[in-house]
Fold this sequence. Notes:
- By secondary structure, this protein is α/β, with parallel strands linked by helices.
- The chain has helices at residues 30-37, 42-58, 77-87, 128-134, 142-162, 169-172, and strands spanning 8-12, 26-29, 63-65, 69-74, 96-99, 105-110, 116-121, 173-178.
- It is globular and about 60 Å long.
Amino acid sequence: MSGEDSIIFQVLDTESSHGRYSKEYKEIRFNDLVKFHGHACDGLYRGSYALLVALHDLFPDGIVDRTDLRAISRNSPCLGDAATYITGARVRFGTQDVRNRPGVWYIIQKISTGETVSVSEDVNFFPEEISNMEAPISVLNGSKLSEGLTILKKMQDSWIQSVLLKTEPREHYHAKRIEYEWTEVDYKNKGIRSDIIFKNVI
């Protein structure tokens, strides 16, 4: 199954502020992610596809443990929000970080085992003509800026519907196991995530 309806994550969380693992998983669909992020865009779709592939590698049974993940991505609003919402990783708990490396990619790590997956998008899958239009938008103004934004959104939306959603995630997003040593996130206000401390209590 391809398309927007195939973007479904089954996730496991704890049941309260100091709780055990929940006895049931919940489903996150693409529209849930849109509500969190604010809009549907090519970055959110592409990030979702990449995460579907990465998380299937780490959780072959299909249930993603959101209490046990760290994530790194490019410092993009779309890619970062997708990682936060779907994996449970957060900067304030030291489990999310960003790098300035271009492209659509993630490094996802299980905290408990250190198992790590790197996932990235095929080079040139996203059209160069759209990328080339995104860069100069910031120097436009007035009616040219307004027109440019309208054209860019139409191009992005058209590519999503006519190309991306007609493919399976594994066609253009590829995961591989890597050895990775997590670097402590430099954030002075980090806290302890208390809602997962007692997750293994029976």
